Amino acid sequence: MSRNTWLGILLLFTVFLGIALIDAGAKRPIDWNETYLFKDKIPFGAYVFREELPNILGKDRSYTNYGESTYELLANFDSLQYNKRAIIDISQFHSIYEHDTKSLLRYVENGGEVFLSGKSFSDEFLDTLGLYFELLDYAKFTPNPRSVYYTLVNDTAKLYLEKVTNLPIFSKLNPENTTILGYLNSRGRALPNFIKVSRGKGAMYLHLVPAVFGNYYMLQENSYNYAAKVINTVRSEEVWLSDYGYYWDRPNTPLRVILQKPGFAQAWYLLLIGLLLLMIFKSKREQRAVPVIIPEPNKSKEFAQTIGNLYYENGSPGNIIQKKIEYFLFDVRNNYQLDTLKLDDDRFIKQLSSKSTVDIDETKHLLKLIDQYRNKKEASIADVKIVNQKIEDFKQKANFI
Q1: Exposure letters 71-94 (e unless 16+ CB within 10 A, then b)
Q2: Structural domain boundaries enclosing 330
Q3: What pLDDT is stored for residue 389 in this prediction?
Q4: 328, 340 in Cβ contact below 8 A?
Q5: For residue 98, is pLDDT > 90?
Q6: Considering only CA atoms, which of 239, 243, 235 is closest in space to residue 62?
Q7: This prediction's pTM
Q8: Does residue 25 belong to any structural domain of this protein?
Q9: Considering the domain boundaries, does residue 283 fall inside one?
Q10: CATH number for the domain that contains residue 96
Q11: Assigned domain for 238 exists
Q12: Torsion over CA of 217, 113, 153 and 179, rounded to 10 degrees?
């Protein structure tokens, strides 16, 4: 080979060597993905939790990982052993649909236990249990890093989770079979985020802070103790642990060696993208121009204003006051779970004042005003303004969600 060829090869080798050295010395970014897989040692993997579980629940129990879906697992269970088995599934999100829900409920009703921890559950699953959850406004509920903390029933310990920015709570419970086991506390209010739902001979535990089972928090004493107390609600002898996502990220192709290495995988995908772009630009076929479709403008505000003006001009002030009072009492029932049939009841006044953190005299004055106008059919615009101002002042002080 000529001298120039050797120089080219040497230059190419030097470039590759330089790239390899730079890549080897580069600091790897921390992976904050929430996988909750037992093999993952990233901050929100569940390696530490799986290793520590026998120490938390006791080594006299049996522990089994399963990689299939819960529906497939239950199909292989012996129904005579339901009362000895518990299923633990920790995931970022739980998508439990109709066939899964039926299998889980049948399993629980026959004596099984199910512990599910996740930031959300599918609506149809919660509807079946008579539950509803919602996300709190992070900006509203965390004016400083330590304004939100977590507690368990009959436990004075407070847990602060600085990495958790998702604040789900259960805003509707079924009082017939639901027991509150833990709370999210903020702005002087305790909101349920860990519950027990009893069904037949068994029970289902729903927990909304899966982050405490991640490696990051399992290595901290306070959060470790919290997680241990939460998981100790499970009483069964056999514990089955879901690791359903374990097989999803394991390449099952002849290219698995390349795909398992981040650098090789990036180079491979870059090559494929380059070839795809080459084929697109080299193609002689031209795509027909896609017409721009302008979406219809949102006229909701104008519509509401028009309806409001028509109602104001043609409706009676007394009817407006009735609607305002009805909506306010609905908010009281929805937010504080209080019966609003007797507004002059001293016990009701004290409960509303306590839960809303509004002075009892101001609360009593508002309820007296509402009771005065509640059945009054003749009223003036001035009366509308008075009632509206008093109600809005109370709602602002009470910080309705």
Answers
A1: eebbeebeeeebebbbbbbbbbeb
A2: 302-398
A3: 86
A4: no
A5: no
A6: 239
A7: 0.58
A8: no
A9: no
A10: 3.40.50
A11: yes
A12: 140
